[in-house]
Amino acid sequence: MHRRTVLGAGAAVSGLAGGATLVRSRAESSGPGEPADPHREMALSRRPIMEGTDRETTVFELEGPETGPTAVVVGGVHGGETSGYRAAEEVIGWGIERGTLVVIPWAEIVALERNERGGPDGDLNRQFPAGREPTTELARALWAEVERSDPDVVLDLHRSRGIYGTHHRWVGQAIFPTAAGDAPADAGAVIEHMNDEHVPRTMVAHRFSMGNTLTGEGPLLIHKVGGDLDRAGFLVELTDFLLDPGTQVRWTLEITERLLERYGMARIA
C-alpha cells in the first residue's frame, strides 16, 4: 500500500526463502498472469465482473470436496502491487478440505495492465466507505461479489514500499485485522508463525507486526468488511524494501494459507 513518502532504492535480497524459479520469474513481471490450474479435488467456476467493459475482470470460485466456510481472497486492488495479485493467482490452484474459495486476483485490471497504483477512477482502495454505497462502479461491482459470497473471512493482498513502524507512512510487513470474532488473535498467531518460522534472524527489521484494527473508519475494502459485515477480514501487507519479488509472493501465500487454516479451510496436497 502506497503512502506519501517514497523510499530510496535499495538492493533486493534474493532468494531469502527458497522456492521455485517459476514463482520468482512470474513475481518479477507485471500485468495479469496465467492463473494456476485448479486442484483435482476442487470444482472451478468463473464469472465476469463488469462484463463487456474495459474494467472486466474474473471471479474464480472453487468448491471443496465438503461443504464448509467461505473465504474471499482479493489481489490487484492496487495495480502496481504485483506480489499481491501473483499470490492470488496461485491460490486459484489450491485444494482445501472443505468450503469455498472465491478469488478475485485482478481487481483493478486497468491499473494492473498499466502497472500503476490506481486506475481511471483513482485509488480503488479509497472507494469503500462503511455504511454507504461504494463510490465507483467498479467498487460497487466488487462489493456486490463480496456480499454475494456471504464470506466467513476476506483477505486483501497488498505490497508496500517500506516497513510499518519504521518508514514514515509505509505499512509493509504487517497484517491489519478487523475486530470481528477472533480476527485480531488470528492475525497475531500468524504473525508469530511468520516471525518464528520464515523471517531470518538476520532480518529483524522485516519481522511482521500487527496493524491497527479496521472497523469502518476508513474507505478501505477491509474497513468495509469489518464495519458493514462484521466479518473477519485481513489487509495483508508485504514490503519490497530489501525483499525480492519471489519472497514477497511466498510470504504472502504462507500468510494466506495460515489464515485460511484458522477459519476451517485447511489446504490439501
UniProtKB/TrEMBL annotation:
InterPro entries: AstE_AspA_cat, N-alpha-Ac-DABA_deacetylase
Protein's name in the database: Succinylglutamate desuccinylase/aspartoacylase family protein
Residue span(s) of domain Succinylglutamate desuccinylase/Aspartoacylase catalytic: 68-159
Pfam families: AstE_AspA_cat (PF24827)
Essential cofactor(s): Zn(2+)
Keyword set, alphabetical order: Hydrolase, Metal-binding, Zinc
A GO term for molecular function: metal ion binding
Positions of transmembrane segments: none
The keyword Metal-binding belongs to this UniProt entry's keyword annotation: yes
Keyword Oxidoreductase: no
Organism: Saliphagus infecundisoli
